[in-house]
């Protein structure tokens, strides 16, 4: 890879400085984030489009930008179907979950679990969220740091410490407003960098028709696979079903996503924020698909994996950028800073969300009831610092577990699957009780952990491997002549005892945890629900509320629903 020049370092410095200054402004000037509501919810006066874009930016991160194009390059453009899953996700959020969260006006969404079930279910779900977020934060920072290290010569750990330190700094002093507005700035950098690479890449390849023909000939557009086999790594149903449930957790049922939506004044604003989120995500996903196809168009006859020029999944995009644009001043630096913007957005959102969950769901019971807002703010900031440091230390373990995208998805599913299942029990199954939810989540967590450990052991021993699409090296020049080994059917040579594609697709892992939690939870609830009190209909999703037996709680009438869509409800709810 080409070396960094002074203007590349200048681009990095400017972006990091703007992010830090945003934190300084909201932490030391403006409202100064004096109260818990200001620090965690931005004072509940945020605008719709910044929230929607902020959720999107914190969601896709460098894991998506680097992992998705590499997946498309190696396995085909199945990722295109994620656009369908994203649209379904928006509908699920608006109609199933957000009406309940917004009406309850909770600070953390796990407070809902205490209202619906009990305290221990809330604490366990909070613990699983924290574990999953720490994993995602750790994985997301490693890949772009590795790429920057390759072009600068700076040790990867020094880069990680520097970027993590800046994220911890501006998140600690600035709270949610800093997170959101740095996300807006960083989203502009990300989208602009992706657009520039797409333009340069298409110009390098020739034109769109040439790119399309190359992708067709290489099998990268053979994506009309509607087989329902869940062990297929990629298929139509893998993304429409598995990907949708996977993303439902992050947007609709995780604190880092829902917290930002709850910072809005009305439910109508929340709906529009979801719309902005879906639009932003669709744009990013299409960019990722196009980048993957461009990379294949460039390396169709000289695969960098086969030739040994790159060894890791996530190195493809940075290597491709330096090949096609390394001679253009500032492009390499701007592209890499775009990757870091995506990573910093994920880190800051997660740290802010974790601080709220730890404080409200874990520590608040042990603190004095008359604790001042100033003391609470200090505790929140200390939690951010401690969490950031622990996430940095975890990187030393996760870097050895394989390709970044599957590791991130499957690793985080240890927590996301059980949490998704618990919320589904609460929202959609009125017969579910506290015992069922708690023990269902525990069984699912143990099961998911066992599956992940066994899977990684098998992959480490090469008992299970993924089959890539064919690669070619017929266009590679070695010692002044073309390579003699013109085509390789796979990117590896497999021994006789290798099992190919025999495990559940990583996109189904979250759904698997959901299914285990719901089945076990409903069985236990059926066996132990003799003395359960009636379920408050306000805690049940509107899509199933009509089927709930009448209790002593009145249903939401049309006047209250109307108020929910306006500032009238928000004002009344806060006064209560």
Automatic annotation (TrEMBL):
Transmembrane segments: 6-26, 47-66, 78-102, 123-143, 155-173, 180-202, 235-253, 274-296, 336-359, 379-398, 404-429, 436-455, 506-527
Keywords assigned by UniProt, alphabetized: Cell membrane, Ion transport, Membrane, Sodium, Sodium transport, Transmembrane, Transmembrane helix, Transport
CC terms in the record's Gene Ontology section: plasma membrane
Gene Ontology MF terms: symporter activity
Protein name: Sodium-dependent multivitamin transporter-like Protein
Presence of keyword Membrane: yes
Family under the similarity heading: Belongs to the sodium:solute symporter (SSF) (TC 2.A.21) family.
Places the protein is found: Cell membrane
Signal peptide positions (record): none
Membrane topology: Multi-pass membrane protein
Entry-linked CDD domains: SLC5sbd_NIS-SMVT
Gene symbol of the encoding locus: AUGUSTUS-3.0.2_11236
Pfam families to which the protein is assigned, alphabetical: SSF
């Amino acid at each position: 890879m080409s070396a960094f020049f002074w203007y590349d370092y200048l681009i990095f410095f400017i972006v990091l400085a703007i992010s830090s200054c945003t934190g300084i402004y909201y932490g030391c000037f403006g409202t100064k984030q004096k109260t818990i509501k200001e620090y965690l919810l931005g004072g509940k006066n945020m605008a719709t489009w910044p929230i929607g874009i902020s959720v999107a930016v914190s969601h896709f991160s460098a894991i998506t930008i680097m992992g998705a194009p590499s997946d498309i390059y190696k396995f085909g453009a199945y990722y295109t179907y994620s656009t369908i899953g994203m649209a379904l996700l928006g509908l699920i959020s608006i109609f199933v979950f957000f009406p309940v969260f917004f009406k309850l006006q909770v600070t953390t969404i796990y407070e809902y679990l205490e209202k619906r079930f009990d305290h221990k279910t809330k604490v366990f779900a909070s613990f699983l969220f924290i574990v999953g977020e720490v994993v995602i934060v750790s994985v997301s920072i490693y890949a772009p740091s590795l790429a920057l290290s390759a072009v600068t010569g700076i040790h990867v750990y020094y880069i990680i410490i520097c970027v993590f330190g800046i994220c911890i700094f501006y998140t600690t002093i600035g709270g949610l407003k800093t997170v959101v507005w740095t996300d807006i700035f960083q989203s502009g950098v990300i989208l602009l960098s992706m657009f520039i690479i797409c333009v340069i890449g298409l110009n390098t390849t020739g034109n769109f028709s040439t790119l399309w023909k190359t992708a067709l000939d290489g099998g990268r557009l053979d994506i009309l696979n509607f087989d329902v086999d869940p062990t297929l790594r990629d298929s139509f149903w893998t993304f429409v079903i598995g990907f949708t449930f996977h993303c439902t957790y992050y947007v609709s049922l995780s604190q880092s996503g829902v917290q930002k939506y709850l910072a809005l004044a009305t439910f109508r604003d929340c709906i529009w924020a979801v719309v902005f989120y879906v639009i932003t995500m669709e744009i990013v996903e299409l960019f990722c698909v196009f980048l993957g196809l461009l990379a294949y168009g460039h390396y169709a006859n000289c695969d960098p994996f086969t030739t040994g020029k790159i060894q890791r999944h996530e190195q493809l995009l940075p290597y491709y950028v330096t090949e096609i644009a390394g001679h253009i001043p500032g492009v390499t630096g701007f592209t890499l800073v775009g990757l870091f913007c995506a990573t910093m957005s994920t880190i800051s959102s997660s740290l802010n969300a974790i601080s709220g969950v730890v404080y409200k769901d874990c520590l608040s019971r042990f603190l004095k009831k008359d604790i001042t807002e100033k003391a609470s703010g200090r505790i929140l900031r200390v939690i951010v610092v401690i969490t950031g440091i622990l996430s940095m230390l975890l990187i030393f373990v996760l870097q050895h577990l394989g390709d970044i995208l599957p590791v991130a998805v499957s690793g985080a599913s240890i927590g996301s699957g059980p949490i998704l299942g618990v919320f589904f029990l609460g929202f959609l199954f009125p017969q579910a009780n506290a015992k069922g939810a708690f023990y269902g989540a525990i069984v699912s967590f143990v099961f998911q952990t066992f599956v992940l450990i066994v899977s990684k052991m098998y992959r480490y021993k090469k008992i299970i491997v993924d089959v890539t699409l064919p690669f070619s090296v017929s266009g590679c020049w070695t010692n002044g002549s073309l390579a003699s080994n013109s085509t390789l059917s796979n990117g590896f040579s497999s021994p006789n005892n290798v099992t190919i594609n025999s495990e559940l697709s990583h996109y189904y892992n979250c759904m698997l945890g959901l299914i285990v939690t719901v089945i076990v939870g409903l069985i236990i609830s059926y066996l132990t629900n003799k003395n359960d009190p009636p379920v408050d209909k306000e805690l049940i999703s509107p899509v199933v509320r009509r089927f709930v037996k009448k209790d002593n709680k009145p249903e939401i009438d049309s006047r209250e629903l109307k108020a929910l869509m306006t500032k009238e409800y928000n004002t009344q709810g806060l006064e209560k």
